[in-house]
Amino acid sequence: MSRTVAGARVLITGAARGMGRLYAERCVAEGAKTVILWDRDGAALAATTAILTERSHGRTQVAPYVVDIADLGAIAQTAQRVRTEIGDPDVVINNAGIVRGKYFWEHDNGADTRPTMQINALAPMYITREFLPAMIASGYRESRIVNIASAAGTLSNPRMSVYAASKAALIGWSDSLRLELVQQGYGQVKVTTVCPSYIDTGMFAGARGPLLTPLMTPEYVVDRVWRAMLAGKPQLLLPWTVNLSKVLRGVLPLAAWDAVAGRVFGVYRSMDRWVGRG
C-alpha cells in the first residue's frame, strides 16, 4: 500500500460530505475495490453514493451505510453488516467529528458533552475494535487506521474545552494503539494520528486562524493526510506552527505561554466568532 489503495477495501466515517467525501473520491480515483461510506445523513449519503458510482465506471464498489456513530450499539450492528456483505476493510479512516464552540458551563450534558465525547473519542475506538482483529490476523497484508484528531487536542483553547478533551483522548488512544501494534509484532497495521489546525469547512465557520496559521483548504489537508496514510506515517501535524506551539508550550512557563498564545498568536481568541454549521 505504498502508493495507492488500488484493490483495497476502505471504510470512511462522515463520508457524505466535506473531507469524508474527498477521501472517498480519492478511493475511487485510485481504483479501490470497495469504498464503504458511513454517515448519519441518509439523503446526503445517497447523493454522494450516486456521484461516486458514476465516477467509478464499475471499477469500485460503493457501499453506503446510514449509521449514527454516536449510537455505540449501532456501530457494532453496522460493522457486522459490513463484515457479512463486504468483508473486513483494509483501511479505516475515522473522519467523522463534531464541535461545540461554547464555554464549558454553556454545554448541555445531553446535547453537547455526551455526543462530542461519543463521536470524537469513543466511536473511533469502537469502530477500530470491530475491524482490528481481522487486520492483525491478515499476516503480511498491510492495513491502515487513520484517526483525524485536532491540534486542539494538543493545546488548551477557550470555547473548545469539551472538543479539546475529546481530541486529546483520541490522540492518546491512537498513538498508544500504534505502539502496541509495533511492540506485539503487528507492524503490517499502521496507525496515523492527524492533528490539523482550523480547516475551512462549515464545521469551523467563523473561526479565525492564529498568527502564521491560516485556515487550510480541505483539499490540501486531504492530500497531506492521504500521503501520510499511504506511507504509514505515525503522526501528521498541520500546519508547521502546530509543532512550534507544542514546543513553546513545553519550554515556556505557563504564564509566559498564555501571554504568547493569547496576545501574540491570538490562539485564545480564535473561536470568538465561531458559528459552525449554523
Automatic annotation (TrEMBL):
GO MF terms, alphabetically ordered: oxidoreductase activity, acting on the CH-OH group of donors, NAD or NADP as acceptor
Pfam families: adh_short (PF00106)
Gene3D superfamilies named in the record: NAD(P)-binding Rossmann-like Domain (3.40.50.720)
PROSITE patterns reported in the protein's UniProt record: ADH_SHORT
Cellular component GO terms held in the UniProt record: lipid droplet
Coiled coil, from the record: none
Family: Belongs to the short-chain dehydrogenases/reductases (SDR) family.
PANTHER family: PKSB (PTHR24322), SHORT-CHAIN DEHYDROGENASE_REDUCTASE 3 (PTHR24322:SF483)
Protein name: SDR family NAD(P)-dependent oxidoreductase
Upper taxonomic lineage: Bacteria, Bacillati, Actinomycetota, Actinomycetes, Micrococcales
